């Protein structure tokens, strides 16, 4: 059976090849040099043209306004050429940046999501912007909202400038409110009120839910804070997910799902539910305003997500960071572009096209933004709750810790496990820390 | 001047150079590097630190690792027997001399060459609990809806179904080739002796097909141990690690948690298991008697 032999060899080859793809990548990383880039030198002028890259994770309609700003910057001067490269979602961008950094060829600018920066800061892979800010008279860092820049501040140094910063806000299906005999202008301010409103809405039918919850890291971090708990102690040395407060928060969500008041559904399927009009309330990013405008046909409103005894919402979205292992020329060019990208005019342009917050006070005061806030008060909510915003944890192993907490949450909410399994989760996390 | 023999030698080396270089660069060297990294603690950003077998001992005492081993074994147990049985049935049916056999062959082989990533996305929709096709079909038979990908145990069933769909065609085609290699005179003789069709399948087809069946079994076990794409796209190992197969476990540890040493240890473990099956295949698969 000759044919068998041939296909045999082919399959063995394919098999081995696929198995070692992972290992190949590791080797690539292993054998690539670390580059011989100068560091710690700051130049004040470019003598030759320079091209730089900025990596970002904003797909779909969010990338178009960014491209416009990049093109305008390139046309505004002749020395610096910026190339924007879309790298996939937040986690993918972080993985690729890590690989590029280890290979010694990182882009000088990269957008990173709030909770994914820890590893880079802990291993000193990013350049603090303070020296650039200090030596640049045109740049007034005080114009930035301090609640927003705290998300990019580590050890009292500012590492990044905000681009698409958001907080979770509560989107309301006002039609469902009315059908349930509720006043859509009376949004919940505590979790108990949220429960009661959600209960009335879910009574409308078997496929209607008062609230959609899911285990996205920044949402559950907000929930825990609202019940008075935090995931880590002050020094990030011990995990507190088995605290009384967090167990109470988990039990509350578990009860909402068991009672049929809330539905536990994240991801694409969650968005599909939001658009289908079967969900009374859902907490989503500030930036989802644009998504709601495009995808939703019912009457919708926005309310603060500061439920619970402690008013708290986590900072979401991303900042743009400057990466080490790059040349002083690239860093100088990167700073010029960062300044341009975050100037008042471009923040206004970015915000009006995406729905994300502006981070400069001067941008918020601009006539364009003021008109929007006046015409559509739904845009105000995220600014109003900003004073309750807290920065995400900066623990290096956050992705793994987040997975462990999400796993426990899924077992508690979907499988009815006791909240006491969080004791085990806390032990597992302590071991990682 | 090179001697004739040297020239022959050189020629031989040149002929095998391309595969040798490709194998070395992409397989042998990375394998050794992975072995090396598995003895280190390394998060990519800071320098490596030698830790001996700490990664292995940590792995063997980790509940999450054994959960992944268990999930992988369940996946193998769920896919392999069914793909082989279905593959055999399809192959026998195709071997009946039905018309437009090449059309059916193409249809059955289509999933094998379909991009798993694309198929997984389609399957995600089919498994959707509220509007998905599968729950609709269940409801036609008066069966209660399933949660599929939203449930820890049902998610594994869902990815097993996708695995079966993906690979049954491969088995069918290989087994069909095996069937066609069985000489017709055995069946002629059996017919003269008055054997029934079922008896012929049992006494002639299955024994004569044993070496091919062994081959596809080993291949399917190896392929099932390496399942990855459908998991990444459909479940990301969840819910609550219900589909956290070994390849996904090591991928996550390497590229999301940046625990390169630990992930390499898991890779070496997976490699060892697959290597054992490969040796089995070489040792017994080649020795099988061919009745020709």
Write structural notes for this entry.
The complex is a heterodimer of chains A (433) and B (292). With 433 residues, chain A is an alpha/beta fold. Chain A has two domains: 3-166 and 316-382, D-Maltodextrin-Binding Protein, domain 2; 168-314 and 397-432, Periplasmic binding protein-like II (D-Maltodextrin-Binding Protein, domain 2, 3-Layer(aba) Sandwich), CATH 3.40.190.10. Chain A has 20 helices and 14 strands. Chain A has helices spanning 2-19, 21-31, 63-76, 90-102, 118-122, 130-134, 146-149, 174-179, 191-202, 217-226, 244-258, 267-276, 288-295, 328-341, 344-354, 361-365, 367-375, 380-384, 398-415, 421-432, and strands at 50-56, 80-86, 109-113, 153-154, 157-158, 160-166, 168-173, 209-213, 262-264, 279-285, 300-303, 313-314, 316-322, 389-390. In chain A, the strands form four sheets. In chain A, strands 2-1-3-13-6 form a five-stranded mixed beta sheet. In chain A, strands 9-8-10-7-11 form a five-stranded mixed beta sheet. Chain B has a two-stranded antiparallel sheet. In chain B, a hairpin with a 7-residue loop joins strand 1 and strand 2. In chain B, helix 1 (4-37) packs across helix 13, helix 4 crosses helix 7 (152-180) and helix 12 packs antiparallel against helix 13 (260-287).
Mean pLDDT of chain B, nearest integer? Answer: 89
* Spatial strand sequence of the major β-sheet of chain B: 1-2
Distance linking N and C termini of chain A: 57 Å
Number of helices of chain A: 20
Low-confidence stretches of chain B: none
Shape of chain A: globular
Mean pLDDT of chain A: 87
Which structural class fits the helix and strand makeup of chain A?
alpha/beta
CATH superfamily of the largest domain in chain A: Periplasmic binding protein-like II
Low-confidence stretches of chain A: 1-18, 29-36
Q: How many whole angstroms does the radius of gyration of chain B measure?
A: 24 Å
Work out the number of β strands of chain B: 2
The assembly state of the depicted protein chains is heterodimer
